[in-house]
Amino acid sequence: MSLGLEDVRKIAKLARLRLSADEEALYREQMGKILDSVAELSRLDTADVQPTASVSGAASAWREDRAIAFPGAEKILSLAPEREGPYFKVKKVIEG
Q1: pLDDT of 32-50, one tens digit each?
Q2: d(CA 29, CA 2)
Q3: What are the E-state strand segments in the chain?
Q4: Considering its fold, how many domains does the chain have in total?
């Protein structure tokens, strides 16, 4: 796929990158190759391929997310300048 210098400059501006003329030419070539690869993949027939999140078939290695009591919580909370129940109390930092 042909990618023009104006496209590269627009992408660089969006990414807040300052590119030299040599870098623009290099990125034009590299991004063109990436787009060609994506175009080639899009031509493949995947109608009979089941969606998957992993190509290895391995089960998730992550443990179940469970809340558990931390044995030293009270000691840590006792060191806080302010607290509210079992929580640290801090100033609001988000304006809404």
Answers
A1: 999 999 999 999 998 998 8
A2: 9
A3: 83-84, 87-88
A4: 1
